[in-house]
Design a protein that fits this description.
This protein is an alpha+beta fold. It is about 55% helix and about 10% strand. The strands form two sheets. The protein has a four-stranded mixed sheet, with no helix packed on it. Strand 7 and strand 8 form a beta hairpin. Helix 3 runs parallel beside helix 5 and helix 8 crosses helix 9. The N and C termini lie far apart (about 95 Å).
């Protein structure tokens, strides 16, 4: 029986295994007809055999019929084969596979086509990451023929995106990735990591140290410390030193931290500041604690044991902790109940300047501190947050702290919620909401506004507020003077040669009143012309107060 006749019989019998065997027949036409028949039957069981047929050398017609059959079957397995074929090293197979994928309208096929466009151009796929098909597509691409010959930078970019989506790169890429500082669990070896520690590129050394610590490879501590010593005596990047300190600390060795603490005591300010930044960049609980303790000791009197360098360099330690942000607060919050008030004061200052998600709750807790200075500073810090929530927290302290302290704190705020509480607590206060204008329509942005007493002394009657993008501002005077006062607007210098601007104008305040005003610069006389637009008794306010626009 001829091979072509046998294929016809197998096709009539819908014998998929038999047709799959014919894909390997020495007769070229028999292979072609078998591939076409498998496409007509559309059985997914043929997909692996059709995929193998794409690797048959010197048979472009078989490739075309196999791709057509895969397009007809179009299940996920067939789509994956077509995606891998789209990234074949043979141009004709890649072109036919992309055309077949476009014809299927399958979600995974469409994701693959979109991804191919990005890979061929600027590789930016962040807007595609939400597509659940992107991860499987990347997994297929990473085992394709084209991927193996792409430039290493492109391969790394694709692998990094794949890792974000939980896609494991091919094992064959492990050594190549390790040389570039991308260590992946299950692919990297101890030899790769040790080589990485001594690599010439800083980013590879950083990645290798991090992987050793993550995998808790305690045998590597001597190697890490030796590398740290070498980096410490050279002009090494701060990021490398921080990574080695972090790795050593995570593996239970604090020698790196102690070495940096020693540098904090250096008589050279630059050396101490760099050490503080490195400890903060290490980002471990112990490195933050070391910086915190150094700053605390710096507040001690010399006779109490402060070492050399403390008095000069402790601001650098505090600045490094402030720059570290929320992670530093998370590590140091255990000191919120420390028996020493000065410890709580330092922590309070860090919390005040942070953007920690629990900042308000932590400040609220410190507002009830038994030490008066800590309590006062915490209440002022809540006022500086200047939101309706912080105003509410301050108001809730009425039964826990002196009433005058609550009123004073609310008076420091410009949020409308604080004014509603002030109306209840001190009906004699004067509230001012206004707009600062340079001419008929130009707002004075980024300027400071304050009410002061008339006369040469010019004692402040309110806190110094700031104008918004529309020139709007709000101020509070808890005890308005009997006579006129002055409103002072300062526009700070914008350049070194710019002296800035200062304008003043007269304003009369009435007790228990909301004043809506407009302060306009008179360019000829270099002063403010203040217009009272409206006076509203506080007793008539029953909702939020907005700055006039």
């Amino acid at each position: 029986m001829s091979s072509l006749r046998k294929v016809s019989q197998l096709a009539r019998a819908r014998d998929v295994p038999g047709l799959c065997r014919m894909l390997r027949h020495r007769d070229t036409q028999a292979r072609h007809r078998a591939a076409r028949a498998l496409g007509e039957i559309g059985d997914p069981a043929a997909v692996p055999h059709l995929a193998n047929a794409l690797h048959t050398p010197n048979d472009p017609w078989l490739h075309q019929w196999a791709i057509g059959a895969l397009r007809t079957i179009a299940d996920r397995q067939a789509i994956d084969v077509l995606i891998e074929a789209m990234f074949s090293s043979e141009r004709q197979i890649a072109l036919q596979a992309s055309q077949a994928l476009a014809a299927t309208h399958h979600p995974r096929a469409e994701a693959a086509l979109r991804l191919r466009e990005r890979i061929q151009g600027v590789f930016d796929v962040h807007d595609l990451l939400a597509d659940q098909e992107i991860g499987p597509v990347l997994a297929v691409i990473m085992r394709s023929e084209q991927f193996a010959i792409w430039p290493s930078a492109r391969r790394r970019a694709i692998i990094e995106v794949g890792l974000q989506l939980g896609v494991q790169p091919p094992r064959a890429q492990g050594r190549d990735l390790a040389k570039r500082g991308l260590f992946i669990s299950g692919l990297d070896t101890a030899r790769d990591l040790v080589s990485g520690i001594w690599h010439r590129r800083p980013e590879v050394r950083i990645a290798a140290a991090g992987r050793l610590a993550e995998n808790q490879q305690r045998w590597s501590v001597p190697l890490l410390y030796r590398r740290f010593q070498r980096e410490s005596t050279s002009d090494a990047p701060a990021a490398v030193l921080a990574a080695l300190i972090r790795a050593l600390d995570q593996l239970g060795d604090g020698r790196g931290i102690m070495a940096m603490v020693g540098r904090l005591h250096s008589p050279e300010a630059a050396t101490a500041s760099e050490a503080a930044r490195i400890l903060a960049a290490a980002g471990t609980a112990n490195s933050f604690e070391a910086l915190f303790r150094f700053a605390l000791e710096a507040m001690l009197e010399p006779e109490e044991g402060a070492g050399p360098g403390h008095a000069t360099h402790f601001p650098a330690a505090l600045a490094a902790l402030e720059a570290a942000g929320s992670p530093a607060i998370d590590a140091l919050v255990i000191h919120i109940d420390d028996p020493m008030p000065r410890v709580r004061l330092i922590l309070l200052d860090l919390i005040r300047k942070s953007t920690h998600p629990q900042r308000l709750e932590l400040l609220r807790r410190l507002c009830l501190d038994p030490f008066a200075e800590v309590q006062n500073e915490a209440i002022r810090a809540l006022a500086q947050v200047n939101t309706s929530e912080s105003a509410h927290f301050i108001y809730e302290l009425l039964d826990r702290v002196p009433r005058a302290r609550v009123i004073e704190a609310l008076g420091l705020m410009s949020d409308p919620a604080a004014w509603i509480y002030l109306k209840e607590l001190t009906p004699e206060a004067a509230l001012i909401t206004g707009t600062a204008l340079r001419d008929m329509a130009t707002p004075m942005q980024q300027s400071f506004v304050q009410l002061i007493e008339s006369g040469p002394a010019g004692r402040a009657l309110s806190v110094r507020g700031a104008t918004d993008s529309q020139g709007g501002f709000r101020l509070t005077v808890l005890t308005p003077p009997a006579g006129p006062c002055m409103i002072k607007i300062v526009r700070p210098p914008l350049t070194r040669s710019d002296p800035g601007e200062v304008y003043t104008g007269e304003l009369t305040l009435a007790r228990g009143t909301l004043h809506e005003i407009e302060a306009r610069v008179d360019p000829f006389f270099k002063r403010l012309r203040v217009s009272a637009l409206r006076h509203i008794p506080l007793t008539e306010l029953d909702g939020p107060v907005s700055a006039r626009r």
